[in-house]
């Protein structure tokens, strides 16, 4: 089990509780990751989530937009998180979905090499969930431009998945994604659910997909995996926290990597 964080010193003979500090990297214009992740861990009193930002204001395929996700920028933010002695550092963003999954594999290795702290990403966690639950046919919901959406579908196709239905808002974002209402997100999930995918992926960490996941699972009977939630799920796994303690946020948190439900 990964050491969940520093043991606090005793004060005047009163023993303090071990804290579990989770580090999250988030785009500068994202206003969803922090409140949603904090809400998801509200019933885990020993867990707190800490954030570091780097500049991201646009999601397109332009050279300038792609350069926002250069590893050096992200590593600088990760090093700041390391000073908080977090147990894990998670890239809570989705750029690997259109840049290629290898970009997050490389980034996580670099973060750990630079900081000595286990690293994860929301997209790689999503892929682990797919593997653990036997998903092959996916529905895809995003706010992205058509060209970005096509790259995401190509990434999953190359990895052996079949996107049977998709919806996207054709928005270059990034701040604007957080202003998309939960009713619209739920409607997009309903629309892709008609194709009966094995699971529905809500891919964007500045979208309030996690807030509607449980309700839409109950309505459609299909697992709904949101990338803000997958980032937290993997963070908890790496920190040695039972993910089943997170309740009310969908079936994701009942999933173990050995494909067995949590106790």
What's the gist of this structure?
By secondary structure, the protein is of the alpha/beta class. It is 40% helix and 16% strand.
Number of domain units: 2
Number of helices: 10
What structural class do you assign from the helix and strand content?
alpha/beta
The fold-level CATH name of the largest domain is: Rossmann fold
In the CATH hierarchy, what is the architecture of the largest domain at level 2?
3-Layer(aba) Sandwich
Low-confidence stretches: 1-8, 259-263
Structure in words:
The structure is a single chain. The chain has 263 residues and is α/β, with parallel strands linked by helices. It has 2 domains: 20-124 and 228-244, Rossmann fold; 134-226, 3-Layer(aba) Sandwich (Rossmann fold). The protein has helices at 33-40, 63-67, 71-82, 96-99, 101-115, 122-133, 146-158, 182-193, 210-220, 227-238, and strands spanning 20-27, 47-54, 88-91, 119-121, 137-141, 162-167, 199-202, 224-226. The chain is globular and about 45 Å long.
Topology:
Layout: E1 20-27, H1 33-40, E2 47-54, H2 63-67, H3 71-82, E3 88-91, H4 96-99, H5 101-115, E4 119-121, H6 122-133, E5 137-141, H7 146-158, E6 162-167, H8 182-193, E7 199-202, H9 210-220, E8 224-226, H10 227-238
Parallel strand pairs: 1-2, 1-3, 3-4, 5-6, 5-7, 7-8
Helix pairs in contact: 3-5, 6-10, 8-9
